[in-house]
Amino acid sequence: MLKTNESFLSYLSALYERQSRKEDIILKRCGKGQRILSQNEIATKVMLIVDGISKCYFTEDNDKEYIIEFLGKGEIIGELELIRNIPCLCTIEAMTAVSCFAIDKPYFSSLLQTDIHLNHLLLDSFAKRIVDTASRAAYQQLYTVEHSLNKLMELQSIQNVSLSKDEMASYLGITVRSLNRAMKNLRE
After folding, report:
1. Enclosing H/E stretch for 122
2. Residues 18-59: pLDDT tens digits?
3. On the chain, which terminus has fewer CB atoms closer than 10 Å, C or N?
């Protein structure tokens, strides 16, 4: 449920400390509920979460939200949009206070051209996302909503994260009404 990437955080923390131009990577702070990136807008920076939790969600044409993932320490955002030169695919919103490194686009582009370690970290991150997405899709197809809800509630407890009913329904890809029904079935 909560994705983290300590290797990416270590790598970027080291880059931040030894950068010669202090504006290439800056530390940015976002308050709870603040949008870090917005769907369909052009990202001005590539971001990496240093601390805190954010949610990554997609809003459909009917204004329904689907939470793709919850992101924590070391998760990079905005890199796909920079690489493909496209507007933001999703909205990233702070669920807690969030600190993140904001990487200047030209600097990130130059690192892509020259830093093999960054490229390895990106490839690993992309591969992990594909595996996680496929596993989650299979899980949602193979198990009941009640089973998935029970697992989600266990993960919230383990990771000390609290989700609203709307967020749980959005993460499970169901309506709040279906969520309430599943919660009632679990209690019985």
Report:
1. helix 116-142
2. 887 788 999 999 999 999 999 999 988 999 999 999 999 999
3. C
